[in-house]
Amino acid sequence: MDHQTSKETESHTSVEEEQAMAVSSSDSKKICYTRYNSPFWQIVIVSFVAFGCPGMYNALSGIGGGGQLDTTTSAKGHIALASVSAVGNIFVAPVVTNILGPKWTVFIGGLPYVLYAGSLLAYSHTASQGFVIGASAVLGIGASLLWIAQGSIMTGYPLPQQHGRMIGIFWIIFNSGGFLGSMISFGLNFSSKSGTVSDSTYIAFMCIMAAGCLCALGLLNPYNVIREDNSRAAVSKKPGVWEEFVGLLKVLRDWRVASLIPFWMAANYAYNYQQNTYNAKLFTLRTRSFNGGMYWLAQMVSSYIFGLFLDNPYMNRRQRGLWGFAINALISMVVWGGGLAAQLKRGPNSDYYALNEMDLITSGGKYAGPFMLYFFYGSFDAIWQTLVYWTIGYLSHESPEQAARYVGAFKCAEAVGSAIASKVNSTKTNYNVEFAVDWAFIVLAIVCAIPFAWSIEDAPAHAGQETVYVEGDKGENRTNSDLNA
């Protein structure tokens, strides 16, 4: 009798597993746009937070020097921001995210962005460098909290075959902030001759940043987010502080992370050259604002198109990863090759790139080449960042808790690279040397990432976490182990 019962149980279990697999193979290929507790809508919400906070920050940075003629102050502030972030990203933010939850982590992380914009407003009247640097340091803490929580949502909630599109959707909404912010600056400062943005620009940015913070209150607990295959995004039990540090240690000991560190460090390394040495030094204020808008527009388009490729249903995960790295390397070399052509036209005896005189209206055809280069710098950055987050989704096995740890490691490496680049930029290094160092570092990062790219496999969904199926769930937590009980 017991033997018969055991056989019936095994048969029943097999049927349930087959049903679960059927759901996974059919419905999980589609993104759910109708449920508020779907990964899509949670990513949309955190995207609007990013739109309002770091999106507006990017708009100010894209203008060059935070909208000020003195780019040295902005660079020093960025050193403080990146230095604080480097520590917070890896030792603080992942723990806070997994224990406090994404809602309050993102909300608290967004508030310092308002303070930073306010410090630039004050600088226009007082020239207080200390206030800008101090606000930047506080922003380093906020950025750590916001970006680690955001990364855990974007890479930990979707299924493997949705990562590229989800990253692209986030990048479109997020960089809409940089695009619209730059266009606001372009309109408000169209006739300005001062070289710095107006007070109304900073006030408008502060209001948008505050609104972005409020959007974070719409985020759900990861346990309440249901994927398209009817699994929860996370288990109900939150890890303790000790468990978090043990998990982080395992991440840091992963050889694949060591292989990716230069690739991660390079993610923001070129921003200082592109925005402070190229855009801020060559163009008039209104042209810098317009260029900034087009830079973020290029990011929006390029990230989504590349994301679609990374979700290509006709290729397996390994093929998508290998081709993704190959395409990224090719585009990087082509774009920076164009940058070399531009550098050759800059020099003390050249009148082609006179400082702060290139204008989208008065410079005529001479403006087209420099503009297209800056546009494609945006495309290069978006493709690089999209691939970075795709690798994190692969490493974390779609677990938001694990994703927070990997995002923390990435953001720490990124902040270190950004701090080094800011230091080089703030010391007024010769622009030819700065360009050469940036390009060489990008080549090094691509070479170091080859072992990781070659190791990519078709990892199963949820390979690193407990999965909770909710189809027919009446309040009971039916885990994988329950199905086999």
From TrEMBL:
Q: Which SUPFAM superfamilies match?
A: MFS general substrate transporter (SSF103473)
Region of interest (Disordered), residue spans: 1-21
Question: Pfam families, alphabetically?
Answer: UNC-93
What kind of membrane protein is this, topologically? Multi-pass membrane protein
| InterPro entries xrefs | Ion_channel_UNC-93 (IPR010291), MFS_trans_sf (IPR036259), UNC-93-like_regulator (IPR051617)
Entry's Gene Ontology cellular component terms: membrane
Q: Answer whether the UniProt record assigns the keyword NAD to this protein.
A: no
What this protein is called in its record is UNC93-like protein 1
Q: Which organism is it from?
A: Penicillium subrubescens
Compartment annotation: Membrane
Alphabetical keyword list: Membrane, Transmembrane, Transmembrane helix
- Give yes or no: UniProt keyword Cytoplasm: no
Provide the transmembrane region boundaries.
39-57, 77-97, 104-124, 130-149, 169-190, 202-223, 293-310, 322-342, 374-395, 435-454
Ranges of Basic and acidic residues compositional bias?
A: 1-15
